[in-house]
Amino acid sequence: MYRDDLYCSVRTTDRDANAGELLQKVLGARSAGGHDMIAGGRVPLPDDPPGRERMALAVRDRVLRTLGGARAKAQPLVNGGRIS
Questions:
Q1: Helix axes 49-68, 19-27, angle to 10 degrees
Q2: Neighbouring C-beta atoms of residue 8, cutoff 10 Å
Q3: Distance (Å, whole) CA 70 – CA 65
Q4: Tens of each residue's pLDDT in the chain, 84 residues
Q5: Report field, pTM of the whole predicted structure over 0.85
Q6: Residue 73: its pLDDT value, please?
Q7: Residue among 38, 31, 29 at smallest CA distance from 9
Q8: Is there a domain that residue 81 lies in?
Q9: SS3 for the chain, per residue?
Q10: Residue 80 falls within a domain, yes or no?
Q11: What is the count of structural domains for the chain?
Q12: In degrees, to the nearest 5, what angle opens at C-alpha 77 toward C-alphas 39 and 29?
């Protein structure tokens, strides 16, 4: 989150993954773009802090569902200041 937007970025080493298509499915074609291995996008955030948190969680959940179905679970990238 930065200012009034939630920014998303997808990077992969798999040429067949189509990062741009993935992010467009999650955020919408007008909010995201990219290519096979690199994609980015942003969505406007609500003004209220609880709404911002709900939006971030909704995007996370949509990414996980799109990538791995209901079995996928979020894994924190940073644990107590350390990168996992």
A1: 140
A2: 19
A3: 6
A4: 899 999 999 888 888 888 899 899 899 888 898 988 999 999 999 999 899 999 999 998 888 888 876 555 556 655 554 544
A5: no
A6: 59
A7: 38
A8: no
A9: CECCEEEEEEECCCCCCCHHHHHHHHHCCCCEEECCCEEEEEEECCCCHHHHHHHHHHHHHHHHHHHHHHHCCCCCCEECCEEC
A10: no
A11: 1
A12: 20
- For 28, the domain range is 5-74
**In the block, residue with structure tokens 């298509």:** 21
| Residue type, position 72, single letter | A
Task: Please check whether residue 28 lies inside any domain of the structure.
Answer: yes
By DSSP bridging, strand 5-11 and strand 32-34 are unpaired
